[in-house]
Design brief:
552 residues; alpha+beta; 28 strands; 6-stranded mixed β-sheet; disordered N terminus; 4 helices; 3 domains
């Protein structure tokens, strides 16, 4: 057979690439690329998904995730596997587990009197799990060229055997015999012509294979480079066991993996028709591991194992005094909020939430939101307006935690009916504690403020200005609402100026003017339908020879 030295070397290398058979895939072969599972189709090295490298020797065990518990910065993973043991000593290999397994947390249970477990250890490896289009096209091209190269080799072998027969025939004819000279000459001419044709075809095949070889080598190099860029480090768990007889067992493996995390998020749905609020609490889960969690039971926990097991030592709570700034009761600060770490999950003790049903969370940074609980609340809602600063009327929601555990801190997306109004930050709310949620401008309640009259007088010694402002509150809801109106009253900077004010139609809630900046406060029930109206009268007097500033 006419094979060049280069062709022979290439064939040997190619056999080394594609010759990883099913037996190696089942038993494992350290240092080689091994498919995870055997395939019923003829083995091709590039079309097994995923690709594992550095798989330890042993029986490969396929396990499935049966439960996940997520805490701050990690997750407890539970896997189950049905294993058939043959009699004697054997090694089990659980392949392609996350690289960030905390080795000290690895536990495997399910062994019994028939099977005793020996050493358990981790070995490093790599995994190519996702196959982008570029890799698939490259593998298809490589598979096509290697198939063509092999077909040419098969054709070359057949022609080589035919050439050997022709050469043997020529040698026999040249040895002479009873054949006539003319017949011998014709036979020799025919055999030599066939030999020439065979040699030419074999040379052409060698040329074609010589053209294919560098193309295949280039694709192999590109494939290895792409695989290297796609592969991720993983850990293979190896378990040594000894079985007294053949038996089937279900093994349960548990381990903690670093990377996954979750944060609480809330959604507040306010029903303006009933005045009730539904607060939904979600877990936003991000799992940064190479393995997918598909259709598994899941639990989230406020536990923080990485922060140690010792009870914390409480520090002092400092209490001080400051000048009263006239804060309303709804806006008063809570003593607990000045304590350090009040918004941290770890400060709330252990809380665990079982997620209903099963959940799928794919690897990556995209995250997944799952509902933890839904709480229906009676909201103490009221509206607040500051017409001197804004034309809008703002809805304020007061709620109380009725649970026996604290509400978790986190962002809250707020909805008024079907309208999204914005995002607020909810702190940790203790049982029985009140929380005020700002719901932004509520178009269902409006307040119109207009100056209706200006009256000026001057007797030569003192000048006076009287300003009358009319207010009209409208409520388009089907029920009364409580409205709190704050208005700023001018404050004199000199004792040469006097300012008096009075309300007509609706008395001040705070009749004195002790509030900073001359703030006035009205509070009233606004019925649906007809507007609620009242007026404010300001009287300012000052010396006639000076100009009054700041009233524009």
């Amino acid at each position: 057979m006419l094979l060049s030295v280069r062709t022979c070397l290439f064939m040997g290398a190619l056999i080394g690439v594609v010759g990883i058979g099913h037996a190696e895939a089942e038993s494992g072969s350290k240092g080689k690329t091994t498919p995870w599972k055997n395939s019923q189709r003829p083995y091709r090295p590039y079309f097994n998904d995923p690709l594992l490298r550095d798989l330890p020797e042993g029986k490969v065990v396929e396990s499935r995730i049966s439960r996940v518990e997520i805490y701050d910065g990690g997750a407890l993973i539970e896997r189950t596997a049905d294993v058939k043991f043959s009699q004697g000593e054997q090694r089990l290999v659980f392949p392609a587990l996350p690289e960030d397994i905390v080795a000290a947390t690895l536990q495997i249970s399910g062994f019994g009197a028939t099977v005793s477990a020996g050493s358990t250890f981790l070995e490093a490896g790599t995994l190519v799990e996702s196959r982008p289009d570029a890799l698939i096209k490259l593998e298809e091209a490589l598979d096509g060229l290697t198939t063509e190269h092999q077909e040419l080799g098969n054709r070359e072998a057949v022609l080589g055997q035919r050439r050997e027969l022709v050469l043997a025939n020529i040698a026999q004819l040249n040895s002479g015999g009873a054949t006539s000279t003319d017949t011998l000459k014709k036979s020799l001419d025919f055999a030599e012509g066939e030999l020439t044709a065979l040699s030419a075809e074999l040379s052409d095949i060698e040329r074609q294979r010589g053209v294919l070889e560098p193309r295949i080598e280039g694709l192999q190099s590109a494939h290895a480079e792409l695989i290297s860029s796609l592969q991720k480090p993983v850990k293979h768990v190896v378990v040594e066991a000894n079985a007294r007889s053949e038996v089937s067992l279900r093994l349960v493996m548990r381990y903690v993996v670093q990377g996954p995390t979750w944060v609480p998020r809330h959604v507040g749905h306010y029903d303006p028709a009933t005045g009730r609020l539904r607060l939904d609490t979600y877990a936003w889960i991000v799992q940064r591991t190479p393995e997918a969690w598909r259709e598994v039971p899941m639990r989230v926990s406020t536990a923080r194992p990485s922060f140690g097991l010792k009870a914390p030592t409480p520090g002092p709570i400092w209490v001080d005094l400051r000048k009263n700034e006239g804060l309303e009761a709804d806006e008063s600060q809570r003593l607990r909020e000045v304590a350090p770490d009040s918004s941290s999950l770890g400060a709330l003790g252990l809380q665990q939430f079982e997620v209903e049903g099963t959940v799928t969370v794919e690897p990556g940074e995209q995250g997944r939101r799952v509902l933890l609980k839904s709480t229906a609340l009676d909201a103490d809602s009221h509206h607040v307006a500051a017409p001197g600063a804004s034309s809008g009327v703002y809805l304020v929601m007061g709620i109380t935690n009725p649970d026996i555990v604290p509400w978790l801190p986190g962002e809250a997306s707020l909805f008024n009916g079907s309208d999204y109004v914005g995002t607020a930050s909810i702190p940790a709310v203790l049982p029985g504690e009140a929380l005020v949620l700002p719901y932004g401008v509520d178009p269902a309640v409006t307040l119109v403020r207009e100056r209706t009259a200006n009256k000026r007088e001057d007797d030569g010694r003192r000048q006076s200005i009287q300003i009358t402002t009319r207010y009209a509150a409208h409520n388009s809801l089907s029920r009364p609402v409580r409205l709190v109106v704050r208005e700023q009253i001018p404050v004199a900077r000199t004792n040469k100026m006097r300012i008096n004010d009075r309300a007509e139609g609706l008395d001040f809630t705070e009749p004195t003017r002790n509030s900073p900046g001359g703030a006035r406060l009205w509070e009233a029930k606004v019925p649906p339908g007809a507007p609620l109206t009242w007026t404010l009268v300001l009287e300012i007097s000052a010396p006639s020879d000076q100009r009054i500033l700041g009233l524009d």
